[in-house]
Amino acid sequence: MAKKSRKTLSIAFEKEAIGQFLLHLYDLQTEKPETDWSISKQEVRTAFLEFLNLPENVVIRKRMPKIPAKEIGVLLRRTAYLIDKPKGCEFFCIRIKKFLQFKEINELHQEFEKKLVMYNAENQKLHRLSTKSNFHITTGLPQFLPTPEILSLKKGNYPDEALCVFSPKFADYLNGGGIFTPENMFDAMKMLLRIEDMNILHRYHLLIQRNVKLAQSSDRYIFTLSGKSRHLGCANDDLLSRFNRVLVIPECKETNLLPKREYLDFLMSGSLDFKSTSIAIETTFLGRIEMVEGKQVTLVMDGNIKLEPKPRYLIIFYPARVTLRYQYNALEIYKKDQEVLNRFLFPEPSNAPTLSEICLSFYNKNIAANPEQKQAVKNIVSISKNKHLSSPFVIFGPPGTGKTSMMVETILQLLLHEPDAKILVTAGPNCACDEIALRICNALALGKEPRSQILARVYCFSQEQRRENMNKLLLEYSNMYDWHFYPDLEVLQSYRVVVCTLSAVGKLAMGSLKHFTHVFHDEAGACSLSESLVGLVSALGEKSQLIIAGDHKQLGAIVKSDRAEQLGLGVSLMERLLDRKCYDVVVDGDNEQYERSIQTRLCRNFRSHPAIVKLFSHLYYEDKLLAMAPKEQTNWAENWKVLKDKDFPILFQSVRGKEEVDEDTGSLANWKEVLQVMRYVDDLLENGLGDGRKLEESDIGIISPYRNQYMTIQEELNVARKFQIETGSAEIYRGKEKAVIIASFVRSRTKSIGFLKNPKRLNVILSRAKSLLILIGNDETLSQQGDYEFIIKECQRRGNFLPDPTAFL
Question: Which example biological process does GO assign this protein (predicted)?
Fold first, then answer.
């Protein structure tokens, strides 16, 4: 049943190119269409050729097919602009509503560009980061390799007793209930990182390829991975990326005699030069991965390999350990600057400041009407104006409560009221950084004149591959407006706001990075403490102010080692801070009492239908969330024929299918649930939600915790030419929202539901939908866990539970 995944055909480049072409075609029309737009195919093809030959469209022309005029129908369909007509029809019918939306957004971007882009007399864009001088590394990044002693502890899966004997400070951490202190933090955290590191090295050891046959294509070398990556605990492309280095060794008698232990010793050495302690290996080739698709790997070598008629090769992949090395390095910086940094990591009640009331004029009027957000913004600005050396300010923001809006408002207020403010905004995922940077850009566009040196968005080199799919305005304010480069730190820190990921800060820390006056750490509940340290230890100084935002009740850090996870590596800085006494919450009846000068707890949800909010609020937020989204945004399903209770737009569809294991990845899929998902998709797109409420493909999101399931669903959507429906896991859907969410849980007829038991994963799934939530799964299997049982019983009580339609056949 499991199929190889195909990439979604409609990429952002095609959407933009076809949108620009339709603008060109629209301008050619004497009478502008107001309803769905019928136009001769020949006229469209002729206009498309003219469009491609315009001087400003040279990049589009190079990337289009060799016979573009004949391909325009395919491109229009792929980008969802085309309405299907009977075969042989001489006209294309264009979706005018979709086109006019693109036209409106394009005009808005042009208007923003006028307000955001400043030119000098030589027509140079003044807001851009200068390339005249680049980033200089002043401190190298050590390898931080795990020691042989750690390998010896691995044999017993790192038993508590052995770890405590090995490190007395770790014993202090473990015996203290897994709580870090200034005394044990360095040693205990280092031990956790080493366990994680050793686990990753072991997986690469299992991935070593023997007797590989290489095929050559131009200057590339291609081979097929052997073995089943399910033994690794993850898919091949979770471990292998285009940044992995590769060592290729011709197989010979000597390589066949090498003991397995030597391969692991070699990986632990960090060397690029393979040296055996027992056998001489003369010929080796070094290269890197260019692409991984399923089991097929494409290599680019530093030199040519002369392929013999029947050669076989030994291939060793080097772990991409840069992010782990950044974490080790951050720990070393913490040890050196512990006296300053302990205020942020181990705050005491005495650090809570007494604040004076200040009056602010808010950019975002919605925040002015929200008591929690309004007071928090005032408090942060007041702390800054009065130069208090306070504890970190924590913004606890459950789903849809507007924490990002609040952070952006706070940054804008600091720019206004603190002329000397130098602000760093950092987060783990690029999407979180992009969202904040883009909102600041949009706010700056409201000014009367463009401004230079306000915002710089710094990307890591790994993001260059997605450059064509990025927001144009964001690129203008980034280090990728032309090609990727790391800016000179002195130039970068002349900007008032720098936005980058935690890993990017780790890179910049290798230069002479100066401290910022304010550091905003978004999505702080979604990364481990060691990951947070990467973005904080070099940026925070004695007089800095730290603001962290997130929700530790949703999915946290991804930790590869189960043992490191058990020992607390995945616990976030946010969660550890909220466990400290100064952040205590005292419940007095319906009221919560807490120190508002150092934290705020947002409770007003502006995303979802009241019944959906009530569901995940009851399960995970002690019934404290308030549904505040407007009815026109959330009541789309009130006339949907499938719901018995129209005030409860949550449907549980029972499907008692059979789960199947993918031989390559070990991931699960359930074909019966795939078919049920597709039935709902077809019905929703064809019939809408009743009372004339039609849905676009982009209104629907599909979530499954299992990669094999959501990739199989994506395959079926591609075959059905439904390219605008996004599928993904709960991890992929963090921070996203859709009008309709369909979730497929996969597990069926088993005694365990595996990682579905994680309440943080279910919290993400339940809180993405604005108007309608459709849950598909085996009700008997899922009811083993209390949260699923509660949801199923609620749907049954409301009449919104549908039994498996094939159960009695």
Answer: regulatory ncRNA-mediated post-transcriptional gene silencing
In a domain, 153, yes or no: no
User: Do residues 55 and 78 both lie within one domain?
Assistant: yes
* pLDDT tens profile 432-471: 999 999 999 888 766 555 567 889 999 999 898 888 778 8
CA 52, CA 35: separation in Å to the nearest integer?
A: 26
pLDDT tens-digit readout, 318-358: 988 999 999 999 999 999 999 999 999 999 887 666 777 78
**CATH code at position 739:** 3.40.50.300
Within-domain flag for 797: yes
The answer to whether residues 294 and 223 belong to one domain is yes
Q: Of the candidates 430, 429, 451, 427, which has an alpha carbon nearest to the alpha carbon of residue 441?
A: 451
Domain range for 87 is 12-116
Full-model pTM: 0.85
Burial class of residue 793 (count of CB atoms within 10 Å of its CB; 0-12, 13-18, 19+) = middle
Tokens of 438: 């883009």
415 found inside a domain? yes
The number of domains in the chain is 4
Q: Residue 807, by phi and psi: left (phi above 0), alpha (psi -120 to 50) or beta?
A: alpha
Same domain, 402 and 548: yes
- 447 burial type by CB count under 10 A (0-12 exposed, 13-18 middle, 19+ buried): exposed
Q: What share of the chain is helix, strand, coil (3-state, %, to 5)?
A: 40, 15, 40
Residue 578 lies inside a defined structural domain of this protein: yes
